[in-house]
Amino acid sequence: MSSNSSLKLQLFNICKLLITIIVLNEVTLVTVSAVEYYSEKPSFLPSCRIYEPGFTKCSTNSIQKLINQLSIGIPEVLETFGPFDPMRVRNVVFKQDNNEVATIRANLTELVVRGYSKTEIKESRVSKKDFSWQTKLFLPKMRLDGKYKMNGRILLIPLSGSGNIFIEIENLDILMLTKTRLYEKGGFTFYNLTSLRVHLNMTRVRTHLDNLFNGRSKEVERSTNQFFNDNWRDFYEALRPLIVETVESILLEWLSKVFHLIPANFFVEDIPTPQQLYGPKATASNGSYIMYTGLKQQLLKTGIVLLTIILLIDFARVSVAGVEYYSEKPSFLPSCRIYEPGFTKCSTNSVQKLIDQLGIGIPEVLESFGPFDPMRVRDIIFKQDNNEVATLRANLTELVVKGFSKTKIKESRVSKKDFSWQTKLFLPKMRLDGKYKMNGRILLIPLSGSGNIFIEIENLDILMLTKTRLYEKGGFTFDNVTSVRVHLNITRVRTHLDNLFNGRSKEVERSTNQFFNDNWRDFYEALRPLIVETVESILLEVMSLVFNLIPANFFVEDIPTSQQLYGTKAKTSNDS
User: Fold this and answer.
1) For residue range 181-196, what is the model confidence (pLDDT) as tens digits?
2) How many whole angstroms separate alpha carbon 152 and alpha carbon 106?
3) How far apart are CA 310 and CA 237, in angstroms?
4) Which residue(s) pair with 336 in the sheet?
5) Global pTM?
6) Alpha-carbon torsion 426, 430, 436, 442, what sign?
7) What is the CATH number of domain 343-566?
8) What CATH fold (topology level) applies to the domain 3-312?
9) Chain segment 86-129, per-residue pLDDT in tens
């Protein structure tokens, strides 16, 4: 089981325990039919007609008005959940043991979340077929403040301390896909929310924990907080499934309450009755929808805090979660059938076509990731100790990689057992340019300095071994890329580092660069871990983005669903 799946299972176990405790000790059953719902349309809410032009614009405005009123305060919602913004969150005790990503025990108290009142509804679409929704939301900023007490490690960094904490998320885009079942109550039609799925995209997460290490070293505290903030993308991505499911839980709790309070007729005037939509055998509800009011309050607030904990661990990579996936096969992409002869040849051609199109430009990839070639790469922090060939600490920044658009796919094999891939690629030339800061030794040569660097590799053969986990989204099967490992073979490496030895001797700098190039095989072996890690990071990032955008069905027409491959207990995810 992957670390993500293990962590996800732990969260579910925590949630189940919370539910059990609340049900046994705190839950009061409230029947909606006994709770007054709106029998007249509230003045703040414009209604719309779905069979008239301009409905989507009207619906978007209607949901925005609802959000605005939640911020002002709807009494029945305030009574159950408290204020919408700022939202006070109950204390949380969090424990995660024996996990590759983090082993941590944390108490968060006096928590307040701000920013929900600034939610902007960018678009609200309603299906005429089944009255499901597709809603695009945007939060300019969400911030959590509180107290923490923590002991453990995050990513090999040991942490202990107690003090103030804040977490701030910028530009949070949410694409929300909601399924509903209509029911009747008191002569009105209501929405019963049956499922809710979200895709998330954000541009920045900032966090700060003061008094880390119990105040023993302010410099280490500062650098640790800086490390979290500099590497926030990587941290977030590893726990994306957990964050997504937490956000889904929060939204489902809020919307279930609101839409059992306000008839659907007040949002969509010409909405059909259940009998009209589903047929005469549809069973109308008498309004005995049971809401566990205390439970909802506990789960909502606990869900928000679990999201907070996850964001504290700071995980993310470039996200396609806010980008709509392809619901029709793009014209540039041939698809194949794995159980028919000639699949490997077809698959090789299909992946080559994808690479070619990435070189031309896929808009959704350009938007989230930037150009494929030249490709801007995130900063790399590299450390290699106690090695006979090299002992080195290096920071590489402002990195640009050229050459990937010339990639040739020599072979693309897909396993029928677990749908992992084995791909052979060839790049005639790959060049990396950027800034470096380095200290240590390579091939017994002591190095220190900072400046410009280039590394140029010729005739790069890559054997790429990719592990995937299938999941469902919108009726399609997708590949979640869980790991990428590469084996490299090359015929030449050239490099140049300027300002070696911090400029003390240009002649020594020149001769050192010449030595590296004359002895490039030894130099490459010394830097092989750095080069391999860089290539793996680039390929994982690109493929995670692309294969969350394009359904696996469009590459392999007869690919099974996750339930068919893993068994009926496999869990459907819309954003692993």
Assistant:
1) 999 888 999 999 888 8
2) 8
3) 10
4) 556
5) 0.44
6) positive
7) 3.15.10.30
8) Bactericidal permeability-increasing protein; domain 1 (3.15.10)
9) 877 666 665 555 555 556 677 778 877 788 889 999 999 999 88
